[in-house]
Structure formats: structure tokens, C-alpha cells
Design the sequence.
């Protein structure tokens, strides 16, 4: 039943490796971009706050599929921006990461913002009384505590991101979902077996992430 | 305007804020100018790429509106099926019988862990001529709906469970005290309150579902809103303009739903009739489509 795995025709592990790479690059990118966005949304400058709010609301309500296809059709094919990618494979991968970061950053931002709200007002007041500037209050006092408070929500964002990397299949990035599509077409008699293989792959990717980060969240949470 | 992080700005801080604003405007302007000039170079700013959306009604009647209708139809149908299914699963997870709890729990956790796109691809293969032979013109539609139902019923099950658990313990105890049976307690006392509590979360789940329908257009040939970009761009060769307009339609529809959800949430939190338990949009763990969660698609 699972003999299609032995035929050597399909590189299942290779496809999942691309999924993992997409996840890791996008996770790092979204963490940075999401933190910047959160900083903007809580900053004293009204214009920055406005930009942050507008960006989050616009991007969150746009399908990720549209963002990724937009990167491919709009940025790459129409405007010729290939993000330095030489081959079709490289370009697709980078465009997918760009789309995922643009999208996931908004969820990181919202998670962080709710974390910032868990920091008691007195802490920021005390920091200001010591003469720290907004930037210092944010980076030295508030964000470190906020990050520890939002490990669990960020873990959910990361798991969602892992699943969302499958959308990269829409622009031909050779990750798990694209291989699954190909295999379902070629191995029509083994539909359930193919699905089982890929389902298992994703359970193996997301389950440990959830458990591990759930444990970390409990360890680092600030006891109040 | 003052907040946790900063005081109401004095004269010096106001000047500083103006300077930051100025720097931001210049940087943003540079990026915008660069993007626009690039688009201009490739002819994407020419009037004839954009005017069809205003002057040519056909673009709307032939492509955009039918596409939007398909999107809404698939989303609404998936929600209508996933809702009772999710409610049943959610209640199953709260069952007194360990066996039922474990089985339903495994089912829910499994379908929450699989990307919705894979569920759609699987359903599509399942409905193929060799296996179930769903007519090929409606197959993508049913594949998309099946994928969405499998995934979202699992998410809704978690919302329902959280909704029931968010009620004060005294509710169930009081029902037991006046002699209601388990089923009666659930249907007459707990569920009605839980449904109110989770209404905002359910409305925002609808946004996730609508966004996920776009996956069907990209990989299964489902004729929904996003897939129209190919046909419009083929006729008018205005890829970027089309993408903009389609994104705008999604944003307007989803923003309306998001606003409805937060309005409901505020109203429910303010009303004194309920127990005060409200599950906000933020409490749903799956922001994406597959954005599941915090980040669905």
C-alpha cells in the first residue's frame, strides 16, 4: 500500500525539508517584522501608530494566497523584482518567504501587543520616573516581560505558520503540499495512503512545537 | 493621548514627534516613489490598466461579482455545516465518558494539525472519477467545502469547548440541583450561554474561512474571487491593477465581518444579562488559514 514510498520517485523528506526551511526563515522574519510593527503601534508618534494599525488591518484581512500569488505575479513576473534569486526555484522560495513574513508579522504584532498590556502600568511609570526614554522603556522594561508572557500565543502563530507554508505550493515552491498534489494525481489508487503520509508529517512537525513551546511558556512566564 | 508607555507629550516631545513623523513620511515616500516609478516603467500605471474597473461594467458582471459569489457561497456553506458538527465535537470532548473524550479529542487534534490546503487536495482526490465520481464542474467547489468543514469544525469544537468551560461552575451545579439531566443541562443551560459567549469568535472564524477559499482557486481550479485575476489579466493585461482591486474586495468584506465581531464582543461584554463570559476574536487560536490561527491563510 505504501510501495510508492520505496519507488524512489518521490522525495518526501526533501519536500518536508523545504517546508521546514520555509517555516524557519519566515518565523525569524515575522518575529522581527512583527516586533517592529508592535513598536510602531504603541509608539507616541501618531503617524507611526496610524501606519501600524492600517497595515495590520489591511494585511490581516487579505488571503495569504493572494499575498503570495501577488508576490509572484506582481513583483516577480510583472515588475521583475526577483529578490536576488537566480533560478526559478530560488526566486519562488524567497517570494514565498516575503509573503509569509508580511502576513505572519501582523499576527506576531497583535500577540505582542496583548503581551505589552499584561505588563503592569507601574513598571513603565517607574521606568519613566527614572528618566528612561520611550525607546528604553520599551526595549529594556516592557518588551522583555511581554515576550515571556506571549510565548504560548506565539507558539500558536508558529504552528499556524508551519501549516501556512503549504500555500507556497500555489507559486510552485517544491514543498510538502505540492508533492502531495503531484502524488495524489499519479497514485490515484492510494489516495488514503498518500494523505496519511503527509498528515503524519505535519502532525510530527506541529505537535512537538506545541508541546515544547507550551513547556517553555510555563517556565518563563513572569509570576505576578 | 497618554498610555502605559509614555506621558502626554510636552512641548519638547511634541517637536520630537514631529521630527519622527517627518522622517517616516520621507522614508515611506521614497519607497512609494520607487514602487510607483517601477510600475510606471513597466506600464502598469497607464490609465487603460485601471479605468476598466470603473468604465467597463463587464469586468464586474462577468468576473468579479460571480467570483465573489462563489467565495461567499463556499464560505457560508462550510460555516453552516461546520457549526453543528463543531458543536457536537466540542460537546463530545466534554463528555463524561473517557472513551468518547479520547476519540473526539484525537479527531479534533488531528484535523487541527493538518493544513487546510492538504485537506482540500485530499477531498479533491477522493471525489475523483475512480473513487466517488463527483461531476467535474462542481468537484473543486465540494472539495473546498469539505476541506474547510473538516478543518473548521475542529477549530469550532475548540471554541465551543472553551465557551462552555468559560461559564461559571455554578451554572451546571444549579442545573443539577434542580434535577436536570446531563443532556438537559447542556442544551437548556450551558449551550445557549456558550453560544452567546462565542458569537464574536465564530464571526471572526468566518473571515478565516473566506480567506481560505482562495486556496481552492489557486490549486483546484475553483472559480472563486482570487482565481478571476488570471482571466481578467489575460483580457486586459493589468495584473497589478487586478490584484489591487481583488485585494480591496477581500479587505472590505473581511473588515466588515471583523468589525461586526468586535461590535458583538463589546455589546456582549457590556450587557448585564449574560454571565459575562465572552470569547473574543483574539481567543481563537487560529488566526490563519490555514491561517490557522494566529495566522490562518
Sequence:
Amino acid at each position: 500500500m505504501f510501495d510508492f514510498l520505496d519507488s524512489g520517485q518521490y522525495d518526501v523528506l526533501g519536500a518536508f525539508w523545504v517546508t521546514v526551511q520555509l517555516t524557519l526563515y519566515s518565523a525569524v522574519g515575522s518575529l522581527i517584522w512583527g516586533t517592529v510593527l508592535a513598536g510602531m503601534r504603541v509608539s507616541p508618534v501618531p503617524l507611526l501608530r496610524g501606519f501600524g494599525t492600517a497595515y495590520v488591518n489591511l494585511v490581516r484581512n487579505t488571503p495569504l494566497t493572494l499575498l503570495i500569488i501577488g508576490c509572484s505575479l506582481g513583483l516577480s513576473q510583472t515588475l521583475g523584482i526577483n529578490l536576488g534569486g537566480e533560478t526559478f526555484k530560488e526566486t519562488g522560495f524567497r517570494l514565498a518567504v516575503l509573503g509569509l513574513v508580511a502576513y505572519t508579522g501582523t499576527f506576531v504584532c497583535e500577540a505582542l501587543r496583548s503581551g505589552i498590556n499584561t505588563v503592569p502600568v507601574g513598571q513603565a511609570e517607574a521606568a519613566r520616573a527614572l528618566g528612561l526614554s520611550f525607546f528604553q522603556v520599551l526595549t529594556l522594561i516592557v518588551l522583555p516581560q511581554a515576550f515571556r508572557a506571549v510565548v504560548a500565543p506565539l507558539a500558536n502563530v508558529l504552528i499556524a505558520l508551519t501549516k501556512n507554508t503549504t500555500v507556497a505550493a500555489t507559486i510552485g515552491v517544491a514543498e510538502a503540499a505540492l508533492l502531495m498534489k503531484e502524488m495524489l494525481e499519479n497514485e490515484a489508487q492510494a489516495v488514503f495512503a498518500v494523505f496519511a503520509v503527509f498528515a503524519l508529517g505535519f502532525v510530527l512537525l506541529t505537535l512537538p512545537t506545541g508541546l515544547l513551546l507550551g513547556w517553555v511558556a510555563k517556565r518563563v512566564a513572569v509570576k505576578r | 493621548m497618554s498610555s502605559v508607555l509614555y506621558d502626554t507629550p510636552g512641548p519638547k516631545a511634541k517637536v520630537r514627534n514631529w521630527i519622527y513623523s517627518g522622517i517616516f513620511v520621507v522614508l515611506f515616500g521614497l519607497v512609494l516613489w520607487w514602487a510607483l516609478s517601477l510600475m510606471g516603467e513597466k506600464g502598469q500605471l497607464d490609465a487603460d490598466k485601471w479605468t476598466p474597473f470603473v468604465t467597463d461594467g463587464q469586468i464586474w458582471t462577468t468576473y468579479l461579482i460571480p467570483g465573489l459569489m462563489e467565495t461567499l457561497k463556499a464560505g457560508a456553506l462550510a460555516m453552516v455545516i461546520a457549526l453543528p458538527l463543531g458543536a457536537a465535537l466540542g460537546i463530545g470532548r466534554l463528555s463524561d465518558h473517557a472513551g468518547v473524550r479520547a476519540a473526539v479529542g484525537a479527531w479534533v487534534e488531528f484535523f487541527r494539525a493538518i493544513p487546510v490546503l492538504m485537506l482540500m487536495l485530499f477531498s479533491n482526490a477522493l471525489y475523483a472519477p475512480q473513487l466517488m465520481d463527483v461531476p467535474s464542474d462542481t468537484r473543486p467547489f465540494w472539495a473546498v467545502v469539505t476541506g474547510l468543514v473538516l478543518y473548521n469544525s475542529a477549530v469550532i469544537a475548540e471554541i465551543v469547548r472553551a465557551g462552555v468551560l468559560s461559564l461559571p461552575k455554578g451554572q451546571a451545579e444549579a442545573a443539577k440541583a434542580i434535577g436536570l439531566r446531563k443532556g438537559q443541562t447542556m442544551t437548556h443551560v450551558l449551550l445557549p450561554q456558550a453560544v452567546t459567549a462565542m458569537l464574536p469568535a465564530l464571526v471572526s472564524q468566518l473571515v478565516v474561512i473566506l480567506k481560505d477559499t482562495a486556496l481552492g482557486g489557486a490549486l483546484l481550479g475553483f472559480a472563486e474571487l482570487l482565481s478571476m485575476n488570471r482571466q481578467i489579466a489575460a483580457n486586459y493585461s493589468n495584473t497589478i491593477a487586478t490584484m489591487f482591486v481583488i485585494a480591496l474586495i477581500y479587505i472590505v468584506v473581511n473588515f466588515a465581518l471583523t468589525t461586526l465581531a468586535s461590535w458583538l464582543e463589546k455589546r456582549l461584554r457590556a450587557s448585564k444579562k449574560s454571565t459575562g463570559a465572552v470569547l473574543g476574536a483574539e481567543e481563537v487560536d487560529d488566526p490563519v488559514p490555514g491561517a490557522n490561527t494566529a495566522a490562518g491563510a
In short: Residues 182-219 of chain B form the longest helix (38 residues). DSSP finds eleven helices and no strands in chain B. The mean pLDDT of chain B is 87. The radius of gyration of chain B is 24 Å.
